[in-house]
Design a protein that fits this description.
Elements (H helix, E strand, L loop, with lengths): L17 H23 L6 H14 L1 H12 L3 H14 L2 H6 L9
Helix pairs in contact: 1-2, 2-3
Length: 107
């Protein structure tokens, strides 16, 4: 039994309003700054902040969304499924409208 290929992580959407895009960009800048702080202080890792910053920029820019989706496609299938399982546990309807979490992933 072969599984269908997994869809992209970030869904293609219409661009958000300018005020929401500004909030996403500001949030991405804050996440990148926290990532640098996490890089300077070895107790806290900065990697989750970098990933969150990229995702926030992916919500604003089509180019960044394509970049995030192409980087996610490079991951092994098992890792992609695990990431989506973690998202599915916490995902509400708003998050599911942004991030594609198929129903067969939760099994």
């Amino acid at each position: 039994m072969t599984r269908a290929p997994m869809p992209d992580l970030l869904r293609s959407r219409t661009p958000p309003p300018r005020w929401r895009a500004a909030i996403f960009i500001l949030g991405a800048v804050v996440c990148f700054a926290l990532g640098v702080v996490g890089w300077l202080i070895p107790v806290v890792t900065g990697l989750p902040f970098y990933v969150l910053g990229l995702i926030l920029l992916g919500l604003v820019s089509d180019r960044m969304r394509r970049l995030v989706n192409s980087m996610e496609r490079r991951l092994p299938e098992m890792v992609r499924r695990r990431v989506r399982q973690m998202i599915a546990r916490r995902a509400g309807p708003r998050l599911r409208s942004i991030i594609h979490v198929p129903d067969d992933v939760t099994r």
